[in-house]
């Protein structure tokens, strides 16, 4: 697995030492030191220079100093702020490393003391009840590792004996069996753990079955008890309400007991009693003065609320049935395909862009005008939602779809006139009896769309939200004292804000603080640091530091990554506020944190005449102004984030907004003015304030859209800008932008679940070409130049798109509730699903059918290899599940060379060979077919003696200690590809095929009547073509008799290359792959360009540019590399940017993105191999070319060649030369030598296939001097310095195997592979190269 590196070449995730687990940290650091090749420097330090050092010694010393700096940098990055202070004065890596060792490692005496304590822990270590086997083994391993690091010697036998002694009693019979049947000296600790875990799994499964049976018995007992109690209610009602059978059972019992025992007065708290008649709280139904509501014994329903294991659809609540009024009734309908309701006021979320047609049994049709969620509430106050409910205005009744519940994973049973619904754990979540009308209906407590216990449209609550949940007293004060402009009259409601209660609850105040006496601005500044936060902000910050002016109470904050940045931030703050106010900072009051008490901070304050007051330790109240302000900020942030359900990484934007609002709110220190007015002298206006996190729509300028594109983009409001614009966040692109042209929907919020699921499915790359002013949220990242960008239409962003199969002939939508399928990550998850169990059984049956293994005892001298299950859900093109595939894979990384395997190489056909075969078949009008061998690796016979463990979850009972000896290969074994290749090689040769000597992936067979059959093999995929269709059919039948095959028919898709047959010939292209990579890197909406590389582009390795994400850059280059298999027009550009993968800069990324933009405009471009109508054999010829000193970094030239068959290219290469050419003639000569080598190989391949009679190839050059240099040895003076290997060209020319011909520059087809070209030249060469588009 590849290591993820950061931009500077170091691992992206470094271990941070915080004073704990020093031994683990030091082990990780040693690996990093070895990876960076600085171990010797850390251990021994930099050797001193001798007197009068030589140049070599100076260079070596300089290199050692550089490596020492790298090592010291790594150590600094791996320490937290507190530990860093201990080595801050260390000048080299060895000194820092030794200092840490002295502080945390200790001497031998200290290790002995530690060892004594660890030994005692080891003696007392036992497995606890409720602890899993894995958890206990982790504890044991951690403890023994610590003991070993402190000098103890602990063998595996000691660990095994310790485990067997200290297991819980439920493992006693396993312990006895192990001790009696196993030789503990030979038992491995891993084998013991696996055996115990398998036993633990069986115990857990049996426990679950037992629990289910107990739950079923308990449910029957409760029903019997309920029916028995009902007999004592004389004349009231035959059956109790659902309340009496579950939640209200205890209450009803207490009441009846009180009546039956009149002599015993028992006081009942009736505030928790709900009347059965009027549904009000505080009295019994017998005491109710309201009109009696008649009820039928069958109209009962019970909903059980549970928030812990299943979908909100299953979160039901207790309800009362009112048969006379169906307005609040819901019918459970098996013939309904979707939940439906006609009450628009019930919807808390409603997407009115969704329209459906609803067809009833009488063939009448009504329209659904939206889909959304309905909020429901149980008696205990817990809220939940019924999701995906259609809004049907003309519908009188409310319907709950049984089918939709079934598709959510619930179980429905109807028996004895009772409908029961169970969740996936078979817990009853709904039970309702059939009514007299033979229907099942329930009453649900609907919570209409409310915010803060009142409607969202209420202006009082709206301004409460806009001001970041400011209390109503201060809101009234702002309006009555006219402290701001634009605030209407506020009336304090009777209700409380639940978000404020959750987010702002605090303890009683502490009155002891230092009195304040500031008389002017900046006389006293209070400061404090808040954090670290659990989640980094968008800019990667962990803290914020606040500054408060005591006189005006004006507040400023700065987001920081580390506390050590406080001094730099204070310097910036001091300059800014002094320039704004004309005053100077006189006093700074802070706590005693290390960020404020460092020598640098003290020196700065002294040199600038600032009195620094540090409060007493453990007395935060003395810095109460800053402490309380930070608490207020965090409370507001918490409230604003909860209000709109925002992700927590937006806390930085919420903090800045909270400060903006607090500066416009009243304070006790100031009378009738806000801090903003006290500071600036200008009364602030609040007309522009909007609810933080609300949904809004940003206007898209005309320059950025086409005529029919959307004019607005949905974004989220996350703050304000000093220029008067709003700070907006695009959750899809994860970008911050500013705009004044914004429309707000303050009652709505972003669907974060939907956006997050879209975001995780691809890698996004911010396009550098954006005209909107955007903020780079990654601090220190490269700034992007604004250029024109054409954005994709926004109108489809919120649309639900359906395949054709989901729409009926009359245009009606066929309702389907699809479950998102995901592959299990563990055996336990897979065993819970029947389709995955069946998939594993199918795999085992295939293995048994193939006679892959046999069950044996493991020889003492052998070690078995573990196996694991790998799961994959294969989908159809329309997204539906095609097949669940479970593959048993051997853990091949545990194999040892020479013991478990020897050779692993397995040849496959080269891509240029595949293109040559396609070109030949097209020219000769041969048919091409594709075959696929199912489970190919399972057919490879092994020569080595290999043992694997039994498949997890399918161990044979009574033979758990047995293993399988492999006769044939399993997927995952290192020798599996080679074993399969040997198997198919033997079979093809036995069928009369010959293997090409020059290309081991090609087999050919010549029949007696001079018919030819060619097989191109790539692992388990093969292309079959030939001159005789009967021969091809014979070969298919032979393959299917020997192997389990899939005949994929005519060749259409091979290794990501799409093949299109036509009357003109065969077109190969990678249109689908091109679209995939554009979508992967978020360039599918980019503006196309006409050339892959701009003329005059010169890329350099070193410069002043900012580095970019190296991993992302490598992904782009790798993806484009594979696209070059059918695109010679981008080969030069991709080769150019691939030279900078080690340390990519901004200009390199811009060049890579230009290639993607070129691909955007030429998605369907490919190569057309024409059919030879008149000529039976096409000529093989090539072109060779080179630039001169094109690379500005090392002045090496780029050589290229392209070979043609049937006037279409099938083999091409663009490569930087290994040496520096002294002239253009020499560069062309070296390029021609490369082409000569390729020509020799191609000629041998075609001769071997019987497709070429002579061995002479023509190569076109546009340099006469290079041709002369190859033909005439007299030009020795110009070529004596050229390396001997390049004179292979001269030898081939002299042997008459190569003919060099001159061509004009405009006819040089290889020119497209050596340099950036103008549009006209590029299009001309593409036409000559037979490059055509599918569209």
Account of the protein in words:
α6 packs antiparallel against α7, α20 crosses α21 (651-662) and α33 packs across α34. The chain starts with 21 loop residues before the first helix and ends with a strand. The strands form eleven sheets. Strands 23-19-20-21-22-24 form a six-stranded antiparallel beta sheet. A six-stranded antiparallel beta sheet has the order 31-32-33-34-28-35, with helices on both faces. A hairpin with a 5-residue loop joins β32 and β33. It is globular and about 105 Å long. It is of the alpha+beta class. It contains 37 helices and 45 strands.
Anisotropy-based shape: globular
Low-confidence stretches: 217-266, 294-325, 450-457, 510-514, 755-798, 805-821
Main sheet: strand order: 23-19-20-21-22-24
Number of DSSP strand runs: 45
Cα radius of gyration in angstroms: 39 Å
Strand percent estimate: 15-25%
Query: What is the straight-line distance between the termini?
Result: 40 Å
Average pLDDT, rounded to a whole number, is 77
Helix content: 25-40%
Q: Tell me the structural class.
A: alpha+beta
Tally of individual helices:
37
The major beta sheet can be summarized as:
6 strands, antiparallel
Keywords:
1335 residues; alpha+beta; six-stranded antiparallel sheet; 37 helices
Task: Summarize the SSE layout with pairings.
Blueprint: H1 22-36, H2 39-44, H3 55-77, H4 81-84, H5 93-104, H6 108-124, H7 133-149, H8 156-166, H9 172-181, H10 189-230, H11 242-245, H12 249-260, E1 301-303, E2 329-333, E3 339-341, E4 347-351, E5 356-359, E6 365-368, E7 371-377, E8 383-391, E9 398-401, H13 402-407, E10 411-415, E11 418-422, E12 428-433, E13 441-443, H14 459-466, H15 472-480, H16 498-504, E14 524-530, E15 543-549, E16 555-560, H17 566-581, E17 587-590, H18 594-597, H19 599-607, E18 611-614, H20 624-644, H21 651-662, H22 675-680, E19 694-699, E20 712-720, E21 726-730, E22 735-739, E23 742-749, H23 752-759, E24 774-775, H24 827-831, H25 834-849, E25 853-856, E26 867-875, E27 881-890, H26 911-923, E28 927-933, E29 947-948, E30 963-966, H27 976-990, E31 994-995, E32 1002-1006, E33 1012-1018, E34 1021-1026, H28 1029-1042, E35 1045-1050, E36 1053-1054, E37 1057-1061, E38 1065-1069, H29 1071-1080, H30 1110-1123, H31 1131-1137, H32 1146-1161, E39 1165-1170, E40 1180-1186, E41 1198-1205, E42 1208-1216, H33 1224-1248, E43 1257-1261, H34 1264-1271, H35 1276-1279, H36 1288-1294, E44 1298-1302, ...
Parallel strand pairs: 2-9, 3-8, 14-17, 17-18, 40-43, 43-44
Antiparallel strand pairs: 1-12, 2-13, 4-7, 5-6, 7-8, 10-11, 11-12, 14-15, 15-16, 19-20, 19-23, 20-21, 21-22, 22-24, 25-30, 26-27, 28-34, 28-35, 29-30, 31-32, 32-33, 33-34, 36-37, 37-38, 38-39, 39-45, 40-41, 41-42
Helix pairs in contact: 3-5, 6-7, 16-20, 20-21, 33-34, 33-36
